Amino acid sequence: MVFRALFEKIKQGLAKTRDLFSGVAALFRMKGRVDRNFLDELERRLYLADVGTVATSAIVERVRQAFLDKEITGDVETFVKAELRALLNAPLPGLNYAPSGPTVVMVAGVNGSGKTTSIAKLAYRCQNEGKKVIVAACDTFRAAAVEQLTIWSQRLGCDIVKAQQGADPASVAHDACEKAKARQFDVLIVDTAGRLHTQAHLMRELEKIRRVVSKQIDGAPHEVLLVLDATTGQNAITQAEIFTKTIQCTGIILAKLDGTAKGGAIFAIKQKLGLPVKFVGVGEQLADLEPFDPEAYVEALFTR
Amino acid sequence: MFEGIQRGLSEALKKLRGRGRLTESNIRDGLREVRRALLEADVNFNVANDFINRVTERSLGQQVLARIDPSEQIVRIVYDELVKLMGPVDHSWRFAKDRPTVIMLCGLQGSGKTTTAGKLALTLKERGRKPLLVAADLQRPAAVDQLAVLGQQINVPVFTPEQLPSGTPRTPVDVCRAAVEYARRNLLDTVILDTAGRLHIADMPMEELKQIDRQTRPDQVFLVCDAMTGQDAVNSAKAFNEALELNGVILTKLDGDARGGAALSIKEVTRVPIRFIGVGEKLDRLEEFHPERMAQRILGQGDLMGLIEKVGRVQAELGQEELRRQQQKMAEGDFTLDDFRRQFDTLAKMGGVRDLLSRMPGGLAEMIPEGEDPETALKRIRGMIDSMTKEERRNPDIIDISRRRRIAAGSGTQPQEVKQFLIQFEQVRTLMRQMARMSMLDRLKMMVGLSKQGLFDPGARIKLKKGDTGHRKSAKERAEERKKKRRKKR
Lengths: 304, 490
Prior knowledge:
The complex is a heterodimer of chains A (304) and B (490).
Chain A: H1 2-16, H2 36-48, H3 53-67, H4 74-88, E1 103-109, H5 115-128, E2 133-138, H6 145-156, E3 159-161, H7 169-182, E4 187-192, H8 200-216, E5 223-229, H9 235-247, E6 251-255, H10 265-273, E7 277-281, E8 289-291, H11 294-301
Parallel strand pairs in A: 1-4, 1-5, 2-3, 2-4, 5-6, 6-7
Antiparallel strand pairs in A: 7-8
Helix pairs in contact in A: 1-11, 2-3, 4-11, 5-6, 7-8, 9-10
Chain B: H1 9-12, H2 24-40, H3 45-60, H4 70-86, E1 101-106, H5 113-126, E2 131-136, H6 143-154, E3 158-159, H7 172-185, E4 190-195, H8 203-216, E5 220-226, H9 233-244, E6 248-252, H10 262-270, E7 274-278, E8 286-288, H11 291-298, H12 304-318, H13 320-331, H14 337-349, H15 353-359, H16 374-386, H17 390-394, H18 401-411, H19 415-435, H20 440-452, H21 475-489
Parallel strand pairs in B: 1-4, 1-5, 2-3, 2-4, 5-6, 6-7
Antiparallel strand pairs in B: 7-8
Helix pairs in contact in B: 2-3, 2-4, 4-11, 5-6, 7-8, 9-10, 12-13, 14-16, 16-18, 18-19
């Protein structure tokens, strides 16, 4: 089961670093009543997972109201986990494919979040579903970014549309759409250059790519995925906010979840923007992209 | 459920302002807000708590300073402690004399090692060193190509695996060892090793790093860390430090809006100093780390020091002569649109306007109208001035409706905007007159005031500030004032 595998992977990662979190008793194995100590420990867990001030205080407050001075039992555990799970809501699994014609998936994110690797994994996933995949190398800015995607496309055996470094990324996207239509590809994945959300001119460039794509193919882009680095802290919220405002993101790929970071900012993001996590990156291999499973995720938050 | 928004410390401490003197209870209140600010800046939870406990102890023993705002006093104490904790930083380089100096970069995937390697090479080259970049990232596709391109851009040789004799193994360890040898033979005195990104919990890759460390005996090992990193920063930094004994940390992507609490966490947990910060994608955007600025940033107080320095630099460029002339003009109220335009160019020289604004305290950047780029706004204003005749620039009072229409057509704006701008200019001129007699710091404060008045916001309505009369007006006085206003409108 996918969920098991993911859970195991995260757990494995955690086992290795257990010594890094020295002296942490299992939260729900604590004896006694739900008191200040327990709530402090819960708060600590949530903070350390990057859940952030607002979300953390909200959750802790709920637990306090519901369980203060009650015995710590399985109920508390169930309640906390259910609360967290409810905040995430299961998104529609997998990609939202176009009813006919090519499905366009646009991928964006800040520098170094893991866009290109995630795209390779996503392409691999689509191929395994029997789709004919083409990728567009619209990162014409960073040195050798096009080469990086080209190497992936060769490994995957999928098509690629590219231009020289410094070319207009929107024109690459345009050509890719033409090609996807003409040669009946099922899925077009558009890679974009990493950019910090504070760079207004680069955000406008991204908007332009989206516009060009939407003019070329009806209903496109069908998915706009924001790649977030799980190690990112509270800045992830601002990233999600501004990217979503600019290019109407439909989901998140939470990359690098195989480390010790949890990417807890997704709680606040889901609540604030309604933006769900669709996939998680859990390793360096092509197969290491899995559909997001809130159950497994919440479980992993407390397994240390 | 999550209505709250992220906010800086200045906002959080507002409620403490004007509460008289520093007492035990308001110290605790204030520090609770400080803790919150630290956590929102992504300072590690345990680090933040320890820090606050320490500061609480110290502040309780502090002399109570009468007539000083308690919030400011707390911020001052916290700021001093933060600076002490993150500093001091020794920015000197120690180079080996008889062999190439080896610098090794390591870090997680996507932290910015390759770009930083390029930046470091450029910095060293500017100091008269002869660097060699070594592409030891054989993991990520095209990482070698990326470094080769960067090397070309800054004219620094790059050692790639292809330079090893064919048939020999080409592991990252081999590449690094051969590169040091290559540097020795070719009289290159500084070797920069760009290693592959790796997870601190992956045994094999970490072992490989240790091998490179043992085989090339680097003089300096730097951890490259993304400034946006959250709570996990301590875990990875700790693991890398245990494996390699780091000499310094390079914090990247600080040109974004991350508050960079990771800097504090890493320093606290590993005791390794932060040496450099990356502040842009271009290769010359590597700066030395200053704990004072970082402390301000983490507290959300704006990078005033950086701004002051920047202003100083640009002023030196402007030349004393020009400066004196302009000051003279300002003092006499003789400030024309031409001078105004020159000021804009100066502003542009200071680097991105957005960058400049974000360095100022008080959340100035938020005052720019939604969706409006300040650079565009400035460009529009420049366009308007450029579309005026010499006479109009000298004496804007002659600009009537038909002239306005012409200027608008010439600059692609609306006559309305031109009018708005001219009104604002008049205000600026008044302010400038006052500014000429001020100290540098007061001038900065004035700039903040200027933008509040909508200097960067030509399309907006003028933001009038309500004047404070110091006493509550009687109904009669208010009526009189209304009458006056009405008369003025006519």
